[in-house]
Amino acid sequence: MRTRSTSDTAGGAGMEQDERLVRERFWSKLRSSVARIPFAEDAVASFYCATDSSTPTKAKAILLGALAYFVMPVDAVPDFIALLGFTDDAAVLMAAIQTVRMNMRPDHYERARETLAGLGQSPEQANGGDSRAAG
Predict the structure, then answer these.
(1) Which of 51, 94, 125, 127 has the highest local Cβ count within 10 Å?
(2) How far apart are CA 18 and CA 20, in angstroms?
(3) Residue ranges in the chain assigned as alpha helix (H)
């Protein structure tokens, strides 16, 4: 897991670094793991919220940090470990979503469902059978 100096975070450089990392790696990471992650819809909706110009900076920073953790090649529980690999990623993302839930709009989830349908995955598959976000 990477670390940042306090001055980087306070100066906005940390958020810019996270955004660059997420924009570069998110879609390839999602495509390579979409069949194995039950939180795909939440991840994609978080991406759309984090890149939405109307999302407040603080919410963007929180979501980008969580998404950066998802795309990082090294994390607390390696993603290749069966059944456990993405649990840490899911926990980090769900904590971020809970924190910024007022900024996660229905259109972010709608775009996520459309995107996942384009990748050949239904919303039920993307959420491990939980279609709570679907409507």
Answers:
(1) 127
(2) 5
(3) 6-10, 13-33, 40-50, 57-71, 87-100, 106-118, 123-126
